[in-house]
Write a structure and sequence with these properties.
Structural class: alpha+beta
Strand order of the largest sheet: 1-2-5-4-3
Shape: elongated
Number of domains: 1
Low-confidence stretches: none
Organism: Candidatus Kaiserbacteria bacterium RIFCSPHIGHO2_02_FULL_55_25
InterPro entries: DUF2283
Radius of gyration: 14 Å
Number of helices: 2
Strand content: 35-45%
Protein name: DUF2283 domain-containing protein
Order of helices and strands: EEEEEHH
Largest sheet: 5 strands, antiparallel
Helix content: 10-25%
Oligomer: single chain
Distance between the termini: 26 Å
Length: 77
């Protein structure tokens, strides 16, 4: 049976960054930037934290109903 991992999702409106972080005490070893995406990895090369920079640009052309759903889901988390 696969172990369920909780993920913390947050949005910083001042920095316009959407973050998704795996729960636990995993130490970040290094990060790789790919355009507006920054992925932080553990020593075992597993993703620990994913940051979407300029996140509002990613969702700006989506229908208002999707933006509202995303806001309610991610900001409330």
């Amino acid at each position: 049976m696969k172990k369920k991992t909780n993920t913390k999702i947050s949005y910083d409106s001042d920095a316009d960054v959407l973050s998704m972080e795996s729960a636990g005490n995993t130490v970040i070893d290094h990060a790789e930037e790919m355009g507006n995406l920054v992925v932080h990895f553990s020593k075992k090369n597993r993703p620990v934290l994913v940051e979407i920079l300029e996140a509002s640009r990613l969702f700006k052309d989506q229908p208002k109903s999707l933006r509202t759903t995303i806001r309610e889901t991610f900001v409330a988390a």
